[in-house]
Amino acid sequence: xxxxxxxxxxxxxxxxxxxxxxxxxxxxxxxxxxxxxxxxxxxxxxxxxxxxxxxxxxxxxxxxxxxxxxxxxxxxxxxxxxxxxxxxxxxxxxxxxxxxxxxxxxxxxxxxxxxxxxxxxxxxxxxxxxxxxxxxxxxxxxxxxxxxxxxxxxxxxxxxxxxxxxxxxxxxxxxxxxxxxxxxxxxxxxxxxxxxxxxxxxxxxxxxxxxxxxxxxxxxxxxxxxxxxxxxxxxxxxxxxxxxxxxxxxxxxxxxxxxxxxxxxxxxxxxxxxxxxxxxxxxxxxxxxxxxxxxxxxxxxxxxxxxxxxxxxxxxxxxxxxxxxxxxxxxxxxxxxxxxxxxxxxxxxxxxxxxxxxxxxxxxxxxxxxxxxxxxxxxxxxxxxxxxxxxxxxxxxxxxxxxxxxxxxxxxxxxxxxxxxx
Length: 422
Ligand SMILES: [Zn+2]
Ligand SMILES: [Zn+2]
Fold this sequence. Notes:
The chain is an alpha+beta fold.
């Protein structure tokens, strides 16, 4: 019997990692230009951290966490999301002494969910958190940054949905309203929502069961219940977004699966993913730092679901980093020269592959073709004696001799047209 990967745990193979790198590199570049720095948080945290932050009665904490007792008897959990660990680090390292912290992270999260297309038990997120800024201008700017990122990686047709979840002063009133509303529809609610009706009635609004969906079609809108402060914040977010020429849809049913959100929440969806089409989600969580023992700190954050984004990007024409192949044949002197050329090209940043065994030109061309080389540099005894290499364009089949000191110039010219997608 061969050993295979665990269900829901996925290998990301080289053919796909080029897209992953492309997204990650664009994210790093754009985040930096908006003042973000990277934070690297551990994969394991105390279980208590997620219970206290995400909420005891959420799906994540109730049924999806990978929790175990370690050899010392402590209850530990593989992080199901990144916000709580970032907030934990923010408090632990007293980052609240700084005027503002803009932090981003990339890496795997773990949830025991039913695996399906674009959803795994180990899944990857690119997330960011802004801690210690409460202005609606910040909400709008981060949303604008996300739209800019999606555009720069080549994703078209992304739409933004926003909502306000109110604050600790006004949300309890909405909860009460929804509770009363759900009481009249007990018969159609699912078991989970019935059980949570008193502690967490809002969960019924994003419950996936059809009964709950039908039951809550005409639920009262949260936007009619939130306080004046929250209303004003929401209006300001929309106003600043329109200054960026971003016009979101208002979705009062979007309550998000985590308890800690306050005021602005959002989702960005893209075509081509069916029902699971949110690629980014997040919002404001002004009470979380205090809940976890830190000072009163307004915060805003988001997480990008990498697998879903990659799924959409996979169908797109994607320009990969071109690969060169240097085919050397004709004895040890030629071999020396060829190795020298390869080293020089690599030092200049070209991606270069070669044949290590002593093989003829035919076998080498076959290999170059199989690994997808864009150009082959042929160096035989004849070329060596004339001080040239033959450069073959694998796409068009055309071939020309190039003097050794002109290789780089010629390659740069040819490759720049490839990168432009010509
Ligand atoms: Zn409020
Ligand atoms: Zn339900």
